[in-house]
Amino acid sequence: MKTVNRRTFLKHTLWTTAAVGLMAPLRPFAAAGRPGRVVGPNEEIRFAVVGFGGRGGDHIKGVMTLREQGEKVRLVALCDADKEVLEQGVKSLADRGTTVKGYVDVRQLLEDEGIDAVTFATPNHWHSLNVIWSVQAGKDVYVEKPISHNVWEGRQAVAAARKYDRIVQAGTQSRSSQGIRDAVAWVQAGNLGRIRVARGLCYKRRASIGKVDGPQPIPPEIDYDLWCGPAPKDPLMRKRLHYDWHWVWPTGNGDLGNQGIHQMDIARWFLGETTLSPRVLSVGGRLGYVDDGTTPNTQMVFHDYEQAPLIFEVRGLPERAGSNRMDQLMGGGVAVIIHCEGGHVLVPNYYSAIAYDQAGKELRKWEGAKDHYANFIQAVRSRKSTDLTADILEGHLSSALCHTGNVSYLLGRTAAPGEIREAIRAQRDAEATFQRMLEHLKVNEVDVDATPLTLGPVLTMNPAKERFVRNRAANQLLTRDYREPYVVSAQV
User: Fold this and answer.
1) Of 134, 156, 222, 399, whose CA is between 20 and 30 Å from 282?
2) How many other C-beta atoms are found inside a 10 Å radius of the C-beta of residue 438?
3) Secondary structure of residue 415 in the 3-state scheme
C-alpha cells in the first residue's frame, strides 16, 4: 500500500472530525431504549432487510424460503440508501405477491413498530451502529460479517445487545455447521495431538478496481450522506461506489475483514480462544497493479496465542501471472487448516471438514449444516442468546482479530525481504509462511524491491481490556472519529 494512502487513512481516523451536518437530523431513539415485542410461539416474526444490493439478497431469499417451508415469518420492509435498488426490490417482491414497505433511511425504519427483527447487509462501516440503534429500538438483529468496522464499536455493539436484552446473530454461518462443530470437538479432544498452528486462507482473486483522475459523480438515486453514515463524506475517488468500498479503509477492511472473517472465525473456534490475541503483527501490501484501492491484496497476519499461533493469509493475485486460477495449500484455497502433531484438519467450505494423518491419509470426514437464519429465529422465539450458534460476542471477537491485524499493517513501514524475515523469525511458522508469500509474488512478476512490502510492528495487547499496551497510535486505530449524527456513543 502506498504511504500516501496510509497517511490519508490516519488523517481521517486520528486527526480530523470529518463532521458534515445534515439538515434536520433525525435522532431516532432515547438513550434508555424501547422495549421490543415478545413474539409468541404462534405469532409471526416480522422482518426487515436493510442493504440488499449484494449479500442482502440472500437475506430476502432466506426469510422467504423459511416462510415457504411453514415457518411463521414475514418480510414486511426493505431499506436501502440507493433509491433505484430499493424501488426494484419492492417491485420484485410485489410481483411475487409480497407487499413490503420501502425505506431509504434506516432510522425511520427502526421507528416502525410493525417490525420485530432486522437483518443488515450494509457496508462494514454501518454494521455496529445499525446493531446499536436497532436494539435500542427494541428489535432483534441479524448482522453480516464483520459485525464492526473497528474493535471498539464492535465491543459497544455487544454491550448494547446485552443491555437491551435483544437477540443478535452474526452472519458467520459456518457456526451453524454440525459437521465443523463435530470436527472442532474431535480436535479439541486430542485425537490428532496438540494443535501446532491454526491457519486461515483467503486465496480469492481480486482484480484491479481501476484508477480515476479525480472525484467521480455520485449517482442521483443514492442518498450519499446516508450511504457514508459514520464514515467521512469524502468525494468518491473510485469508479464504483458499490462493492469496491471493501478495498478502501474508511468503509472496508480488505479481504481480511470481508471473506477472511469466515475463516478467521473457524480458526479461532478450533483453538477455543475467547479473547483477542496477546500479540499481533502483519506483513503485506497492495501489489501487482496500481489502482484506487488502499487495503492490501497480499497479507499475512500472525496472532500469537499461547496455545498455538493463528496465522492468516490473504492472496488476491492468481497462482501466477496470466493465470485465472488461484493457489491452494494442502487442498484449500478459501479454507482453514489446523496443523496438529498427528496430522491436520482441512475445512474447505462452510459445512464440512476432513482429518488427515501425517502421511496424508484421510482419517475422518464430517459434513452437514443447519439453516443459519432458522437458528436466529429459534433464538428470537426462546429469548435465549445461548441458543444462537453465532452470538454477537463471537462475531465481535473474530471481527476484532481482523481489525487488530490491519492495525499492525497500517502502522507499518516498507522493508526489504531480508529485514522482514529477520523481524518475524522468532514467531512460530511465520518465516515459512512469509517465504511462500515471496514465491507467490515472484511468479506474479512482482518485484518486492521496486514495490516493497509493508512490515507492521509487533503489537502487544491486554486481551481483557481490548487495548494495546503502551501504544497510543495503535489504540487510536481501535476506533474512529464519527460523523454527526451517525455516532457510536460510549453510552449505549
Assistant:
1) 156
2) 14
3) strand
User: Reduced to 3 states, what is the DSSP secondary structure of residue 380?
Assistant: helix
What is the C-alpha to C-alpha distance for residues 372 and 191, in angstroms, rounded to an integer?
Answer: 28
Domain 14-173 has CATH 3.40.50.720: yes
| Other beta carbons less than 10 A from residue 29's beta carbon | 17
pTM of the model: 0.93
Q: pLDDT tens across 324-382, in order?
A: 999 999 999 999 999 999 999 999 999 999 999 999 999 999 999 999 999 999 999 99
CA–CA separation, 103 and 36 (whole Å): 20
Q: Which residue has the cell 481480511?
A: 256
DSSP character string of 63-104: HHHHHHTT-SEEEEEEE-SBHHHHHHHHHHHHHTT---EEES
For residue range 237-266, what is the model confidence (pLDDT) as tens digits?
A: 999 999 999 999 999 999 999 999 999 999
CATH 3.30.360.10 in the chain is located at 176-369+394-476
SS3 of 107, please?
A: helix
Q: Where in the chain is the domain with CATH 3.40.50.720?
A: 14-173
How far is the C-alpha of 444 from the C-alpha of 359, rounded, in Å? 31
Sheet holding 73-79, edge to edge: 101-103, 73-79, 45-50, 117-120, 140-143, 168-170
